[in-house]
Amino acid sequence: MSTKKVNVAIIGLGFGAEFIPIYQKHPNANLVALCQRNEAKLNELADAFGIDKRYTSYEELLKDPEIDAVHINTPIPNHGEQSIKALNAGKHVACTVPMATTVEECAEIVRLTQETGLTYMMMETVVYAREFLYMKELYENGELGKVQFLKASHQQDMDGWPNYWPGLPPMHYATHCVGPVLALTQGEAEYVSCFGSGTIREELIKEYNSPYAVETTHIKFKDSDLSAQVYRSLFDVARQYRESFEVYGSKKSVEWPLIEGKPLVVHTAKKPEPEIPEEVESPDYAKLLPKEIQHFTTQGVYDSEENEHLSFTQGAGHGGSHPHLVHEFVEALVQERAPYPNAKQSANITCVGILAHESAQQGGAIIKLPEFTFS
Question: Taking every annotated instance into account, which residue ranges of this chain make up the domain Gfo/Idh/MocA-like oxidoreductase N-terminal (predicted)?
């Protein structure tokens, strides 16, 4: 392993605090600064983890020549603008999902990475969760056979979430279900068609002029015979939290459990009918990580009850993905290679959701992904 070190700053310390000890223990990272508008919260966390550099101003942090890369964990509406500012300041960017809220912001991030040679990675948890890594291993070993269809969902009750969440169109935050269907085969979405279904209550509709309780999108893959279906709900749908991903192959298929915490179901072709399905506990993939951060696949900062972050609680720890995300980003910088997902791939994943909602507003019209999202 290289001895090169990357100097990283974390921006946003709600969910972002999960990543502090991972960067501190990664053998190729130095966590040199934290940024949070709330100075009391900033000092509390920086004191707890022994970090000297503290910023309440993002713009001031970007002027710091010691910082090579930023990891952005701020609210969704800020992602595009803050990523663009960081790239313009000469910093590599890791950003929590989604990449941005408009196609134009996605295009600008891609343009800047091409112009500057800087690295961008969208930190999509699902494509580094243990369940996805298990299905990826089956795929790469040929155990699935020919992949025939992919399906994913993300259903969550967002009542009580603050700021911009009430009434958010379901597909505007769709990367958790779009990401895995594209990532398994490293495919790209060519065009989408989406239908809205049901109606949320009136006070929520007015926030974004979006009435849909559920949005269901079909994704056609570019240069492939594959298509995928993803569906998403945020309000007024009775459902336990579910981030599901399913793959149907000619030899084996893997389905997500209906109830959180239950095993995956693996179906094997050509067995006697009662023997086709088998419940399988997904193994953990800490073995893929440096030993210093392996334990973070099963624990995090928010393990104590008083500190649990809502996304971590509802998301079942995001499948042990956090150290895998950090490792992919840091190693991409050290090895001077593209991470997955890179800027174009992140834009393709994110724009699926943005354009899918536009499709729903047009009664399911086919909308093509923009050229800048293709490799």
Answer: 6-122
Distance CA 307, CA 326 (A): 21
Taking the CB of residue 195, how many other CB atoms lie within 10 A of it? 16
Q: pLDDT, tens digit, for every residue of 198-207?
A: 999 999 999 9
Residue 311 CA to residue 301 CA, distance in Å, equals: 13
Q: Which amino acid is at 204?
A: L
- Given a cut of 90, is residue 143 above it in pLDDT? yes
Q: Where are the alpha helices (DSSP H) in the chain?
A: 20-25, 39-49, 58-62, 79-88, 103-116, 130-140, 175-183, 202-208, 310-314, 322-335, 343-361
Please say whether the beta carbons of 23 and 85 come within 8 A: no
State both tokens at 312: 């971590």
Domains of the chain: 127-286+352-373 (3.30.360.10)
- pTM score above 0.90: yes
CA 271, 272, 275, 277 dihedral sign is positive
Task: Report the alpha-carbon distance of residue 77 to residue 109 in Å, rounded.
Answer: 15
| Per-residue confidence (pLDDT) for residue 300, from 0 to 100 | 62
Residues comprising the chain, all counted: 375
Band (11; pLDDT cuts 50, 70, 90):
very high
Residues 6+ apart with CB under 8 A from 272: none
What residue type is assigned to position 354 of the chain?
A: I
What integer pLDDT is reported at residue 311 of this predicted model? Answer: 38
Do 49 and 21 contact (CB within 8 A), yes or no? yes
